[in-house]
């Protein structure tokens, strides 16, 4: 008899210990746990649930009864009601251990996600509710949504800004190259100022566009083979006018062992270099700016921009590469959107390395970064030789390679169709073509472009090149390109013109539309007139 009593005592004690251990585990559980009976009686709850709902045990059921799903957050279809408790009641009609995601409610400042399932608690059926704090997920969704909205807004604003800049830049360059305006004409200097100002504004727009891409994780680089010196020289020309006005000298130091052609992203490389040179120009009152291009021990291109400017203190250097971190000097008060160096550092990392800074106050600064310039399939080892140092030539003109150009002008079949809904864009591009005596027609919409292509075909002629805008009324450029390709495939036109996109859109998705529609390539507005005319004449020579 005593033995049986002792065994019952041990069993009861073991059960109590097991319950204590279970309670300890449930209370350490990061989620709220509640088990209720068919009559809405509390069979079990942990402490975390009370903290999440911010109530006492006696108020638990009334508190839950008042909770409703957040708008758009109801997942359960068990009941049309928006009250969570109405869905909980129906759980008992489901199969045992079948789990249902109910949705998200808000209690105070806390967003709570609710899950429920039918369980066997002792000898009776019950409902197990698990409640999780999902504030971090809601915040992440909000941030992602805000970033997407910012991205759309920035892309839209940037596109609208690029359109007038394209007209201003193109017309200014056309006037600069007009043979009737002598090099000493007072307009020349004013046109140079317009060019410099539009280039500066364009760099700010590019920073905003890149910022929008970084926000949504769409930032990328596009590698290709190109002539390194040409890219560097073009960037230097953009700041040469301002440097001359400030009395600054610009020097380059080029490693002769660098290959003529390199494999990386030419636009991104130029963007980083231009940003570093622009900053050097801002903070250098007298002296010089030096650009060094060397081949390092890892066979990378190492670019260094060194100036004799005011320098940067260690305290201010901490904010150089922060988002919207600007360095303002009381004497210079430079302006900008605070994204240039932040964006440049991100680009530099994609190209090969972060930007390194060395600076001493009143003694100048040195910014450097490394770029992977060889294709992975390229093998071989390059040796260093003596460096060469040279001053940038005074002539502000690049050599153009226009093969068989005189012959092309005499061919009746060599014609260009400009398609753009913006009158100023057509005027600017038309002025450029006219300065090189290239014959062209115009169309305001994609629909009008198709009509003109068909009209030319009736005359047994055809356009050799179509320069097509993207976004236009009636029929956009991408659809127009597809239609023209379809006309050729169906035999309705005898010759297929080369179609190139010329658009202010810059996102990968929109640029991909150009290739998918059958265009040979896409040129982003505004484009340097010399680069643009080179591309045009190359296509006309095919």
UniProtKB/TrEMBL annotation:
Superkingdom, taxonomy of origin: Eukaryota
Residues with 4-aspartylphosphate modification: 469
Molecular function terms, GO-annotated: phosphorelay sensor kinase activity
Segments forming domain Response regulatory: 415-540
Pfam families linked: HATPase_c (PF02518), HisKA (PF00512), Response_reg (PF00072)
Domain Histidine kinase: 156-375
Keywords: Phosphoprotein
Name of the protein described by the UniProt record: Histidine kinase
């Amino acid at each position: 008899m005593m033995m049986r009593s002792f065994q019952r005592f041990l069993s009861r004690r073991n059960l109590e210990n097991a319950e204590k251990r279970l309670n300890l585990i449930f209370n350490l559980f990061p989620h709220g746990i509640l088990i209720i009976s068919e009559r809405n009686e509390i069979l079990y709850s942990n402490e975390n649930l009370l903290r999440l709902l911010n109530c006492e045990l006696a108020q638990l059921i009334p508190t839950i009864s008042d909770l409703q799903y957040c708008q758009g957050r109801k997942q359960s279809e068990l009941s049309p009601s928006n009250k969570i408790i109405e869905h909980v009641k129906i759980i008992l009609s489901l199969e045992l251990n079948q789990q249902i995601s109910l949705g998200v409610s808000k209690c105070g400042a806390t967003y709570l996600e609710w899950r429920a399932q039918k369980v066997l608690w002792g000898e009776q059926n019950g409902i197990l509710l698990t409640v999780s704090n999902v504030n971090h997920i809601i915040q992440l969704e909000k941030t992602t949504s805000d970033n997407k909205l910012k991205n759309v807004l920035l892309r839209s604003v940037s596109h609208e800004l690029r359109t007038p800049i394209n007209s201003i830049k193109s017309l200014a360059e056309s006037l600069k190259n007009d043979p009737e305006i002598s090099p000493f004409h007072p307009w020349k200097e004013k046109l140079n100022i317009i060019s410099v100002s539009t280039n500066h504004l364009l760099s700010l727009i590019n920073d905003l566009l890149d910022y929008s891409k970084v926000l949504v994780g769409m930032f990328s680089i596009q590698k290709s083979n190109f002539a390194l010196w040409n890219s560097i020289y073009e960037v230097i020309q953009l700041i040469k006018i301002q440097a001359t006005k400030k009395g600054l000298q610009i020097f380059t130091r080029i490693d002769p062992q660098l290959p003529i052609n390199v494999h990386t992203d030419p636009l991104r490389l130029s963007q980083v270099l231009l940003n570093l040179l622009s900053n050097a120009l801002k903070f250098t009152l007298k002296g010089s700016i030096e650009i060094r291009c060397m081949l390092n021990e890892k066979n990378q291109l190492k670019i260094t921009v060194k100036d004799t400017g005011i320098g940067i203190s260690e305290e201010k250097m901490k904010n150089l590469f922060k988002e919207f971190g600007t360095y303002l000097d009381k004497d210079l008060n430079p302006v900008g959107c605070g994204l240039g160096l932040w964006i440049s550092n991100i680009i530099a990392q994609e190209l090969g390395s972060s930007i390194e800074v060395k600076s001493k106050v009143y003694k100048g600064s040195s910014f450097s970064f490394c770029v992977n310039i060889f294709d992975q399939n390229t093998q071989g080892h390059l040796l260093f030789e003596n460096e060469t140092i040279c001053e940038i030539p005074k002539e502000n003109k690049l050599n153009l390679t226009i093969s068989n150009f005189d012959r092309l002008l005499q061919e009746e079949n060599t014609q260009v169709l400009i398609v753009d809904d913006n009158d100023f864009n057509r005027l600017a591009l038309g002025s450029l073509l006219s300065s090189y005596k290239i014959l062209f027609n115009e169309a305001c919409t994609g629909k009008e472009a198709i009509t003109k292509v068909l009209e030319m075909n009736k005359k047994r002629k055809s356009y050799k090149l179509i320069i097509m805008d993207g976004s236009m009324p009636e029929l956009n450029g991408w659809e127009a390109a597809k239609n023209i390709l379809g006309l050729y495939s169906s035999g309705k036109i005898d010759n297929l013109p080369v179609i190139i996109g010329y658009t202010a859109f810059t996102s990968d998705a929109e640029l991909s539309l150009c290739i998918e529609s059958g265009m040979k390539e896409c040129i982003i507005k505004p484009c340097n007139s010399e680069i643009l005319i080179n591309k045009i004449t190359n296509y006309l020579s095919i």
